[in-house]
Amino acid sequence: MEHYIEQRFTGERALFQSDGLELSYCTFADGESPLKESKNLVIHDSLFQWKYPLWYCQNVTVEDSVWFEMARAGVWYTDHISVKNSTIEAPKNFRRCSNLVLENVNMPNASETLWNCNQVSMKHVTAKGDYFGMGCTNVEIEDFTLVGNYSFDGAKNITLRNAKLLSKDAFWNCEDITVYDSFISGEYFGWNSKNVTLIGCTVESEQGMCYMDHIVMKNCKLLNTNLAFEYSTVDAEIDSSVISVKNPYSGRIRAKEIGEIIFDNKEMRREDTEICVEKEIK
Questions:
Q1: Beta partners for residue 235, in sequence order
Q2: Rounded Cα distance, 111 and 80, in Å
């Protein structure tokens, strides 16, 4: 394996179609697509400073490295890539990648990141930016913090554990989502999604869990949540009070307290939803 140490690369496609490189303490400065169509790369303690560094690549390991802001759209169409202990300042990263591992990664400008990727593992990741995770499939996430709206739109087969999501319109148009022991805050959670399960979670969401086919909640809390479950099939065990529930389609809702139960659509029948509360205020 050829080894570059403390090298500075400039110009377009500086290491185009490389095979079997180790890069240590290297800088990829001005010049697009320096490693395009390369494979079998080991990169550590290096700096990506310009656009499109890793496109159409295979078998890439990156550790202790930095993508600066102008290294936007950094990793597209790449298979079998692992990024660990790194900072990614650039937006629009990770598009149409497969077999992607992110561990101990900070993404402070993650707008439009992680789109249409398959077979993704994320551990100890923080991200800030809208439209994170759109169209992804087969994703395992543990210890994740996201600040950004419209996350995971159209995603399928996603499992999250110990996450914190401050995200309006999270998990729209999704299918087969399971979330454990997490906190989610943002209006309109989960609209138009199918087979979403929340276990041991705390959710704050105005008009959350609406237009959903089979939303399951076990041992969850709903804080400051009103007009919930409209037009949804639901099986919910809520260990808190709920401000209001409106027009659920069918199923079962159990809560400590529901401030208001609203059925004002003649197509939604109260008898189709079993609602059990310790106290109904109104």
A1: 216, 252
A2: 23
Helix (H, G, I), strand (E, B) or coil at 180: strand
Query: Quick one: DSSP state of residue 34?
Result: T
Dihedral over Cα of 189, 190, 192, 197: its sign: negative
Strand partners, 236: 217, 253
Cβ contacts of residue 107 below 8 Å, gap of 6+?
87, 88, 89, 93, 113, 125, 126, 127, 128, 129
Task: Find, among 168, 117, 109, 173, the residue nearest to 141 by Cα.
Answer: 117
Q: Is the pLDDT reported for residue 280 higher than 70?
A: no
Q: Where are the domains of the chain?
A: 56-280
Q: How far apart are CA 158 and CA 274, in angstroms?
A: 29
Contact assessment for residue 32 and residue 12, using Cβ atoms and an 8 Å cutoff:
yes
> Per the structure block, which two tokens stand in for 245?
């529930």
**Residues whose CB falls within 8 Å of the CB of residue 42, separated by 6 or more in sequence, listed in order:** 1, 21, 22, 23, 61
* Radius of gyration of the chain, Cα coordinates, nearest whole angstrom: 22
Tokens 């790194």, located at residue: 86
C-alpha 269: how far from chain center: 35
- The dihedrals phi and psi of 272, each to the nearest 5 degrees, come to -80, -10
Residue 1 has pLDDT above 90, yes or no: no
Which backbone phi and psi does 129 adopt, to 5 degrees?
155, 150
What is the bridge-based pairing of β-strands 156-166 and 194-199?
unpaired
Give the integer Cα–Cα distance in Å for 230 and 30.
52
For 60, 213, 221, 251, the CA distances from 233, given in Å and listed in that order, are 44, 5, 18, 6
**pLDDT for 15-29, tens place per residue?**
999 999 999 999 999
- pTM equals 0.94
CA distance 201 to 255: 14
